[in-house]
Model the fold of this input.
Amino acid sequence: MEHLTIGYAMCGSYCTFEKSIKQLEKLIEQGYDILPIMSENAYTTDTRFGKCKEFNEKIESICKSRIIHTIKDAEPIGPKKMCDLIIISPCTGNTLAKLTNGITDTAVTMAVKSHLRILRPVLITLATNDALGAAAKNIGYMLNRKNIFFVPMKQDDHEKKPNSLVADFSLIPTAAEFALKYKQIQPVFN
Done:
């Protein structure tokens, strides 16, 4: 495999952090270099799912790189061609809405904007409770946008959370291979 760098961006779907970090480790095992990126909230918020300091230290240790967590530090990603692919894992409905509407107010949205301006691929690992509700239009819009790809997703609890969709995190490495070829892995919805 040629030497490739993946920008691995994490947003505040805190309940999926452990699954996401497991796939981050698999990407490193496959030989990718990883540039870790986190939204400011993901980087600084303690939750019932864990302490931010512990997550941050674990990610930096795995990647052997400091986490980009400010808009200022994320801006050069595109102009300096720092990544071959950006994976947003997890991507919240809030971040998806911002990307759909061109809002750049976090390190993650800036990283994606900067990366897309040089026409490189972005892979979205969605995790949101309103995917089949308020966020549905944003998913539809992004499915038709150039250089945007999705990790296959499914309802995680159709009885208690009928509007919720979560990506199959185990498919991130395979979906990344497809996205690097500018192709969408199928099916998108399982």
Notes: The chain is about 35% helix and 20% strand. The two ends are 29 Å apart (CA to CA). Residues 17-29 form the longest helix (13 residues).
